[in-house]
Write a structure and sequence with these properties.
The complex is a heterotrimer.
Chain A (H helix, E strand, L loop, with lengths): L4 H7 L13 H9 L13 H10 L6 E4 L6 E4 L16 E7 L4 H9 L2 E4 L2 E4 L2 E5 L5 H14 L3 E5 L3 H10 L6 E5 L4 H11 L3 E4 L3 H13 L5 E4 L5 H18 L9 E3 L5 H13 L4 E4 L4 H14 L13 E4 L8 E5 L2 H13 L4 E6 L6 H6 L5 H11 L1 H4 L4 E4 L7 H8 L2 E4 L7 H9 L1
Parallel strand pairs in A: 3-6, 3-12, 6-7, 7-8, 8-9, 9-10, 11-12, 14-15, 16-17
Antiparallel strand pairs in A: 1-2, 4-5, 13-15
Chain B lengths: L1 E4 L7 H9 L2 H13 L4 E4 L8 H15 L4 E4 L3 H10 L5 E6 L2 H14 L2 E5 L10 H17 L7 E4 L11 H12 L8 E5 L10 H14 L4 E4 L4 H13 L9 H7 L3
Parallel strand pairs in B: 1-2, 1-8, 2-3, 3-4, 4-5, 5-6, 6-7, 7-8
Helix pairs in contact in B: 1-2, 2-3, 3-4, 4-5, 6-7, 8-9, 9-10
Chain C lengths: L15 E4 L13 E4 L18 E7 L7 H8 L6 H11 L4 E5 L12 H14 L4 E4 L4 H14 L6 E5 L5 H10 L2 E5 L4 H14 L1 H4 L2 E4 L9 H16 L10 E2 L1 H5 L3 H4 L11 H19 L3 E4 L2 H14 L6
Parallel strand pairs in C: 3-4, 3-10, 4-5, 5-6, 6-7, 7-8, 9-10
Antiparallel strand pairs in C: 1-2
Helix pairs in contact in C: 2-3, 3-4, 4-5, 8-11, 11-12
Classes of the chains: A alpha/beta, B alpha/beta, C alpha/beta.
């Protein structure tokens, strides 16, 4: 991200010496801001100035990583307030909390099951948080050891006592865990631990002001691998604080808030907890830590994360192939549509609610909708006929009838000729499928 | 684009006569008409021939305020007239204008700070209007820095890169457009930008066409405000369309009507 | 150090719409419900006024909804053959803020109920409960267009919320609402441009109706395009706050219908063991969908499962807590 003229000007000597070839330092600053010059043209800038300018041109929110290998969770480096303005980049890390009072082994085994396959995608619960509730360094260390032995996922160590943290850390050296948390009371020791182990460090304040102050103290100790927590736990307050973190970092480049943020749920009821976690995930937590750990609870939350972090500019495609809906057999009807995910899902949902086992062929249109793909010649007699061949539909059904979206009824003749299949023109809108299928296939 | 209605100006004969006779009717008619047509501010200029600029300015402001609630843009090179005007404006006004000259900046910015007024800043100095964009931008930056010294945020400033008629200074057009873009690099928040739109077409044929063509080009380069003829429907329609293309308003089939009616 | 809180300055607020009318106001409701009025993004109390909480309706039909299956039979099976009893249970036992009556029975593919039967169903619900009422047709414009006027007239004074007006078919329902002082749902197919245009067309028919529109941007369920409708709602609400009066209306979403159509809500655990227990999964699928729309600015949600209503109500309680700095 570029610096403004005034930001650069602040760091220049302000002598108007003209050695750079421009009449004033301000003119030089403006030339740099618009990318027309190089700082090297000024013989008077110091190394300090250079590093200050480098710092100032860093992204508004720092990228921080936790975990190692294939299980690194990348956090931050977000640039937007609204996904429709561009996109959100690094999906919120979802962490399940395990207390050192719990049956840690059983808990972490359950956690390892929290991976899901739906609509061709793989959802992963990517972090596990281990909390020292016992107050005993030894017990905490044992819990961390158990966790580390049973999962390769990124780990968050939750303890405010530096001695406990040190013990916990010793069990996961080299796993790049997130240390939670440095507070006003313990930050010097926590920073030392984070530095010694090169781990990211969460900074927990008691308010926005206190959090900013603590961040500045830690940055003064020359540590910048940070994650923010304002300390708030009431839903509405957390939402406000997370919004301020994001807005001040992105819009104002307010440096103390230029780090990813972590939020902890406070609800005991798992349903309320999932909804609370979902709210934080929407606005703007980079990590959310929750206690709920049943599959039926995590699946909806991870689905929302996946949906929210899609790129709005990029149409989302489902795999172009033949899908079975219900107990499809050799007599089941065959619908044809595009592989634009929204189109496909709507068709799928309507076909499903017809309760007549069927097949849907999603034709590869590069993820664009029926009419757009038709206009673009990506949904044509030729592409559909080729997709039918490739899908193996000819071996799966013993009829030769396919249902074509009503909007492209015009393709009927050419498609029949090209594919040798009989074409039944279906409804224009997916909402007509239930009725259509009852009339044609019941 | 913020529309500053240009019509209450002693350069126009009807307004000059109204000032001379102290006849409020033409002034108030133009105030209402410009407001109806979508102006956000009304420019108030006593014209070159008024012997008593202070008296004429305060009278114009008073009668305009009787007819319209819009904020005013006090347009004069005589700062005493502007100061007298600021005292009687019912809502925060805009000062039009100050060049990047030390004494004038001090006078104007101290007034602006005292009365909470926005300021139109001209990207020129004692040496006149710069030939190229770089000098205009450097002067704009200087205006921002000096205003900051008076506690005035860049958002309160409207930098005018100074538009010259395209039939005599054709090479300036592209420099003005670049200046509009790069003014946004001065600071965060950035200063706003303004142009006196009709300057571009002085002495040409097809004035209205040149005006609206320039308006949309300037908007595409980040222009925030224009001193314009709010009575020019085709200009307003072009601005409405440019706002759609720049994604400033959400499209719908009736977007022109929506834009024209939004201030009514 | 003091952090300078960043508050957006908005030029406009969302319009307020009053649903229902009490006896003194010419209706028979025990109370009215006001929606809209936001002067800030969802639940950001620190930067503007959020005078009214989002409200939750439960959906009932004028016939027993066979396709809802055994899961909902547990909750509604004892009442769903009688819309009055069904509405009462939703309000008294499950705590619905209001009721949405869908006149599914008018559809010739179901029982093809006559206009009089539809009116009778509306009256039954009005008699059974005191909360404001949403009435929507069967979803087929050719049938629904003939229903709006007689229903609006039969319930004159009740300030119903009647739906739906669509770009291709908005005049009949708008006239019916106009003539009898009802509110109107303006529905657009996940398309913000059509959403705005439809509002303009309705406003052109009657400026008074412009203040009685509730936008239905058409919402998708979690996992089925929710991000499209989420972003459209965010854009509409931002537009409204920044001064676009033709988007400055409260918004409604049929969360229940969409969520309970999904595979994730309906697949038995036996068929998809990795997804966990079915009913809980369905409730959370609906609740997570609802949660997302709360964050994008929704004002009225129509839900299906009483447990979803409970958890979302508790969430709204939390989100309505002041968070001013």
């Amino acid at each position: 991200m570029g610096l403004t003229g005034l930001e650069i000007y602040k760091h220049l000597p302000k002598t108007n010496c003209k050695d750079c070839g421009l009449p004033t330092c301000l003119a030089f600053a403006m030339a740099l801001a618009s990318g027309k010059g190089s700082l090297d043209s000024c013989p008077h800038v110091t190394e300090e100035t250079k590093s200050a300018l480098d710092d100032a041109s860093a992204p508004p929110i720092k990228l921080v990583k936790a975990g190692v290998g294939d299980h690194v969770v990348e956090l931050g480096e977000e640039t937007e307030i609204f996904r429709h303005d561009k996109r959100f980049f690094h999906p919120t890390g979802v962490a399940v909390l395990i207390s050192d009072h719990d049956d840690v082994a059983a808990k972490v085994e359950a956690f390892e099951q929290l991976e899901f396959h739906r609509v061709g995608m793989h959802y992963v619960t990517d972090m596990v948080a281990v909390r020292c509730d016992s107050g005993e360094a030894g017990k905490f260390k044992a819990a961390v050891e158990t966790v580390a032995g049973k999962t390769k996922k990124a780990i968050i160590l939750v303890a405010e006592d530096p001695a406990a943290m040190e013990a916990g850390l010793s069990a996961v050296a080299g796993r790049n865990p997130l240390i939670y948390a440095a507070t006003a009371a313990n930050y010097e020791k926590m920073v030392a631990l984070a530095k010694a182990n090169s781990c990211p460090l969460a900074v927990k304040g008691t308010s926005l002001d206190a959090t900013a102050e603590l961040v500045e103290k830690i940055v003064a100790l020359d540590y910048r691998e940070l994650v923010l927590d304002s300390g708030a736990r009431e839903t509405s307050k957390v939402l406000a604080d997370l919004t301020q973190f994001r807005r001040l970092a992105v819009r104002k480049k307010f440096r103390p808030f230029g780090y990813p943020a972590i939020a902890f749920t406070s609800k005991e009821d798992p349903r309320e907890e999932i909804v609370q976690a979902g709210a934080y995930l929407s606005k703007y937590a980079d990590i959310v830590v929750l206690k709920a750990d049943a599959r039926q609870q995590l699946l909806p939350l991870l689905a929302w994360r996946q949906n929210l972090y899609t790129d709005p500019q990029k149409p989302i495609a489902v795999e172009a192939k033949l899908y079975d809906i219900g107990d499809a057999n050799e007599n089941s009807p065959l619908y044809v549509t595009t592989n634009f995910s929204l189109t496909y899902f709507i068709v799928e949902s309507e076909v499903e609610s017809s309760r007549i086992p069927s097949r849907i062929l999603a034709v590869d249109t590069g993820g664009i909708s029926v009419l757009t793909a038709y206009a673009d010649n990506k949904f044509s007699a030729e592409t559909i006929a080729a997709a039918i061949k490739k899908s193996g539909a000819e071996d799966k059904v013993n009829h030769r009838k396919l249902v074509l979206p009503g909007y492209v009824a015009v393709l009927k003749g050419a498609l029949e000729e090209e594919s040798g299949w009989e074409v039944i023109v279906g409804p224009r809108e997916a909402s007509g499928i239930t009725k259509f299928s009852k009339e044609n296939f019941a | 684009m913020i529309i500053i209605g240009e019509r209450i100006n002693g350069m126009f004969k009807d307004i000059a006569r109204a000032i001379k006779d102290r006849d409020p009717v033409p002034v108030q008619e133009w105030a209402r008409k410009q407001e109806h047509n979508g102006a956000h501010y009304l420019d108030i200029n006593v014209g070159p021939s008024s012997p008593d600029a202070v008296g004429a300015m305060t009278w114009l402001i008073e009668v305009t305020q009787e007819a319209s609630k819009l904020p005013l843009c006090l347009d004069s090179t005589k700062y005493d007239a502007i100061e007298a005007g600021l005292k009687i404006c019912r809502r925060p006004a805009m000062i039009n204008s100050v060049p990047a000259e030390k004494a004038k900046m001090e006078r104007v910015f101290s007034m602006a700070a005292e009365y909470g007024a926005e300021v139109i800043c001209l990207a020129m100095n004692e040496e006149g209007i710069p030939k190229n964009a770089d000098v205009r931008i450097a002067l704009a930056a200087e205006l921002v820095v000096v205003a900051d010294g008076f506690g005035i945020s860049p958002e309160m400033l409207y930098i005018d890169p100074l538009v010259l008629p395209c039939n005599v200074a054709q090479d300036h057009g592209i420099e003005v457009l670049r200046t509009l873009r790069e003014i946004k690099l001065i600071s965060d928040p950035a200063p706003k930008t303004v142009v006196g739109l009709s300057n571009i077409s002085q002495g040409t044929k097809n004035r209205a066409l040149i005006n609206r063509t320039f308006a949309v080009m300037a908007m595409a380069n980040g222009l925030d405000a224009g001193i314009v003829d709010a009575d020019d429907d085709e200009l307003m329609e072009a601005i409405a369309s440019a706002r759609i293309i720049l994604n400033l308003d959400i499209y719908c089939d009736s977007y022109v009507d929506v834009f024209m009616q939004r201030n009514r | 150090m003091t952090v300078e809180i960043l508050k957006e300055k908005y030029r406009n607020t969302v319009g307020e719409v009053v649903l229902g009318a009490t006896r003194e106001q010419g209706g028979t409701r025990s109370h009215t419900i006001t929606v809209g009025g936001e002067g800030a993004l969802p639940f950001l109390h620190f930067e503007g006024s959020i005078p009214n909480r989002p409200v939750l309706a439960l959906e009932i039909w004028d016939l027993a909804p066979a396709e809802w299956g055994p899961l909902f039979e547990k909750y509604y099976g004892d009442v769903w053959s009688d819309p009055g009893a069904w509405a009462s249970k939703c309000v008294d036992q499950y705590g619905a803020d209001l009721i949405q009556l869908r006149l599914k029975g008018a559809d010739p593919d179901t029982k093809g109920a006559a206009v009089e039967e539809c009116i009778a169903a509306v009256k039954k619900v009005l008699e059974a409960v005191g909360v404001p009422l949403i009435v929507v047709g069967c979803g087929k414009p050719e049938i629904d267009n003939a229903l709006y006027a007689p229903i609006a007239e039969a319930a004159a004074g009740e300030k119903l919320l009647i739906g739906v007006a669509e770009l291709e078919s908005y005049k009949a329902v708008t006239s019916a609402c106009m003539a009898n002082q009802h509110n109107l749902i303006a529905q657009s197919p996940i398309d913000i441009n059509i959403c705005k245009q439809l509002n303009i067309l309705i406003a052109e028919m009657s400026t008074a109706m412009a203040n009685r529109i509730i936008i239905d941007p058409t919402i998708a369920a979690l996992g089925y395009g929710i991000e499209y409708s989420y972003s459209i709602m965010e854009r509409a609400r931002n537009g409204a706050l920044q001064g676009d009066k033709m988007l400055a209306m409260p918004m409604i979403g049929n969360v229940g219908i969409e969520a309970w159509r999904t595979k994730e809500a309906n697949q038995p655990e036996a068929d998809e063991p990795a997804w966990g227990e079915q009913e809980e999964r369905g409730i959370l699928w609906e609740a997570t969908t609802a949660m997302a729309y709360l964050q994008s600015g929704i004002d009225i949600m129509v839900l299906r499962h009483p447990e979803t209503l409970k958890v979302i109500k508790a969430t709204i309680d939390d989100l309505m807590q002041d968070n001013s700095y």
